[in-house]
Design goal:
616 residues, mainly alpha, 29 helices, 75% helix, disordered N terminus
């Protein structure tokens, strides 16, 4: 039914203020033709009430034979049950649209209709207040849909609000609406559109507010968040600092707490963990003192603290914070909200790091199901696909791993660190499958992106260099392998001079020199690796280093030293791994081979010491 094309005469109600409007409408509803008049009023003067109008039309058409008395009685009931709800909530200033929506849907037994595509603006001076109220109602309804995660409907209502406000003289309300529209575009990852509307908002606010205005602080914060999302951390921090300086002077410390959380999140994304921890702990202290324990802002802070401790390797604390975040969000948000998807994805990554593969797959799949419905082309969905690829790679399900890494890359059209991560994962899949050409292609794509986007030196870049070095070692291209291992080594020496990562690279480089029979260089690097690992608890890397030394001395022809280091390796692997683990099997084979080749030992000694592979 195309209601706006009705030919019925409209109800003539002059509206100068809320009381006059309510009185006029109530008087009209007491007349004998009140249903006609009320319907016509809705058709011509209340475009926001399509659902109510449809109900009234349906009511009228099904009661054409009613007597005047019956019509008055029935229509009075309509007024009592529906119009008063509408007036109370849309004109009283409460603007509780969730309650209004629920009340109308209960009466209509179905969802409200979408608003019209255009709004017939009354330009007479006495209607400006009324038009402003309607704009605010649209804004509130948009906020409701935004909270639900229904960004398309939210944008629809914010646009209706904007169209009204751009014809008015209230610049402050228009600035807020520009900001709200920008926030929707951010949710949809349309960042250029978002930037346009945030800058429109900022231009208005810089004209009408003083420099220390809280309104400006909010806009600076929003711009900080925007630049953070598009990978411009320096601009993001500049806007966050502007926001923080204003908020420090405000008695409202809650906003300051949220800004500290945003700054902490920015440092977290850029792996500046010390600064992230400082800001997030400040945020937590402020927010916990001011907010109820189930507040969503507190959940956001907990979620970031969970990621921080995860990146620091403190998995116990990470798990506790991520669970806190999840429980709050599950109780306060609709089940398909994108924020829940982000938390589920973080939990999936957490359990993946703990090698709890079933739990990881569960939470990552939950995140995917939400994101496929709410934003099927989002970076968040690409990230969840990438994490599932990593999971299936870890469980040696290479077919599923390849599928999920490819699904991630199909979403990511622009170069990004997430895209680089997916190329690296896909490269590892092809490496494990023995397709070294495709592995090389993907590893190289990853490095090209990281060299362009990452600051130097970067540990992620060091890992990528190491991956490509390992591939070239496998292909027998030792000069190329050496060059990439040296690149990785220089970064790790600078950033992690006593780390297990450094030890791994030293071992890889030593194997290259061992292949080239440069035993002096190989020995120097492997002994240096052992020196690094002595600063850490016993780990598999130490066993591997002992094994590499054993191999090197064996190739050099020094059976005594080879035997010594193979035995050291055997002790480490037996302490850390099951007896039938391939590392234990391999080192026993090396000991057996070494003893068989050394005339000082007999095969019987090998069997008695249970070093023979056949005894596994």
């Amino acid at each position: 039914m195309n209601i706006s094309n009705s030919t019925n005469a409209s109800l003539d109600i002059s509206v100068s203020n809320e009381n006059a409007f309510c009185s006029s409408l109530k008087c009209s509803l007491q007349s004998s033709d009140l249903l006609f008049q009320f319907r016509n009023y809705l058709m011509n003067s209340c475009p926001e009430s399509q659902g109510l109008l449809e109900f009234v039309n349906s009511f009228f058409e099904s009661h054409e034979e009613m007597t005047q008395k019956e019509t008055q009685s029935a229509s009075s009931k309509v007024y009592q049950e529906m119009v008063q709800v509408f007036l109370d909530h849309s004109k009283s200033g409460q603007r509780n649209f969730k309650q209004l929506k629920n009340a109308l849907e209960e009466q209509l037994k179905g969802p409200l209709e979408s608003p019209p595509s255009s709004f017939r603006l009354n330009t007479e001076e006495y209607d400006l207040e009324y038009n402003s109220e309607i704009a605010l109602e649209y804004s509130d309804l948009a906020s409701f849909y935004q909270a639900e995660g229904n960004f398309e409907k939210a944008l629809e209502y914010y646009t209706l609000c904007k169209n009204i406000q751009e014809a008015s003289f209230n610049q402050s309300d228009l600035a807020v609406t520009y900001s709200n529209i920008a926030s929707i575009y951010c949710e949809k990852e349309l960042f250029e559109e978002a930037k346009t509307y945030y800058m429109k908002c900022l231009q208005i606010e810089q004209k009408i507010y003083p420099e220390n205005s809280q309104n400006l602080a909010y806009t600076y914060s929003n711009l900080g968040s925007l630049y953070s999302q598009i990978g411009s951390p320096q601009k993001a921090e500049t806007f966050y600092q502007k926001c923080k300086e204003i908020q420090r002077t405000s008695p409202n410390k809650l906003d300051l707490g949220i800004t500290y959380c945003n700054i902490g999140c920015l440092h977290l994304e850029n792996k500046n963990l010390a600064k992230a921890e400082h800001s997030l702990n400040k945020a937590k202290a402020i927010l916990k003192s001011l907010l109820p324990k189930d507040h969503l802002d507190l959940a956001f802070c907990y979620g970031n603290l969970g990621i921080l401790h995860f990146d620091q390797g403190n998995l116990e604390k990470a798990g506790k914070y991520l669970e806190k975040c999840k429980e709050i969000q599950k109780s306060e948000l609709p089940p398909l909200h994108p924020f829940l998807a982000a938390t589920y994805s973080n939990l999936g990554s957490f359990y993946l790091d703990k090698e709890a593969y079933e739990l990881s797959e569960h939470w990552l799949s939950e995140a995917v199901q939400i994101l496929k419905q709410s934003n099927p082309r989002s970076n968040e969905l690409a990230s969840s696909y990438s994490e599932l690829g990593k999971l299936y790679l870890g469980t040696q399900n290479y077919s599923k791993a390849q599928t999920h890494y490819s699904m991630s890359l199909n979403i990511l059209s622009q170069p990004s660190l997430l895209q680089a991560k997916s190329y690296a994962g896909l490269g590892q899949v092809f490496y494990e499958k023995g397709d070294l050409e495709k592995a090389e292609h993907n590893f190289t794509k990853c490095i090209e992106i990281e060299e362009d986007l990452l600051p130097f030196p970067s540990l992620d870049l060091a890992l990528s260099y190491s991956n490509l070095g390992t591939l070239y070692k496998e292909k027998g291209q030792f000069m190329l392998a050496e060059s990439y291992f040296i690149k990785s080594l220089k970064i790790e020496e600078f950033l992690l001079p006593n780390s297990q990562e450094l030890s791994t690279t030293l071992n890889n480089l030593a194997q290259i020199y061992n292949q080239q029979e440069d035993f002096v260089q190989a020995e120097t690097l492997l002994l240096r690796s052992l020196s690094v690992l002595e600063k850490h608890p016993v780990c598999q890397e130490r066993g591997k280093t002992f094994s590499s030394l054993g191999c090197m001395y064996k190739d050099k022809g020094d059976s005594e030293k080879a035997k010594h280091y193979f035995e050291q390796s055997k002790l480490v692997f037996e302490e850390l791994l099951p007896t039938d683990h391939y590392s234990n099997t391999w080192v026993r084979e090396q000991l057996h081979s070494n003893l068989m080749e050394n005339l000082e030992f007999s095969p019987i000694e090998c069997v008695e010491d249970d070093w023979s592979p056949s005894k596994n």
